[in-house]
# Entry
Amino acid sequence: MLLRGINLGPRNRIPMAELREALAEAGFENPRTYLQSGNVVLSSGMSEKKLASECKRLIAKRFGLDIEVVVRTRSELAKVVKLDPLGDVATNPKRYQVSFLAAKPSREVVGKLEAVAAEKERFVVKGREIYAWHPAGVARSKLWALLAGKGLGVPATARNWTTVTKLLELADEA
# Structure
């Protein structure tokens, strides 16, 4: 489970220990977090859509925040890592990002991404994921700004490659 836009600066603060506690109290099994940016691994028999909805509701009730929640199963996360379509060019895992979307992006959105990508940047859309390589970093990247903003037309959140692979490791420990 990936939470969008939490613990970035002074807004949308959620202590991870309190989030784990809230999830456990709600009946989710073995909730674990990675870093302070809303990366959660847990066990649930719910569908992705139901899990996202329940967690969004729980966060609103417990923390008073309207946070988008994007869910991937362990199997889906393993496919993301195995696919790794930019692994041959992405040499720095902190500059290699995967955006996880709630639904496939429209052709219009993909066209916008193509229009703003810098010459050396690369991105690949595969289903509900957008893999993006930012060799010069994300600070001035127009591609990153579009991927990180709300212009994708669906709830989305991004993680760097190090975080993506660590989340799979955590899911495998369950």
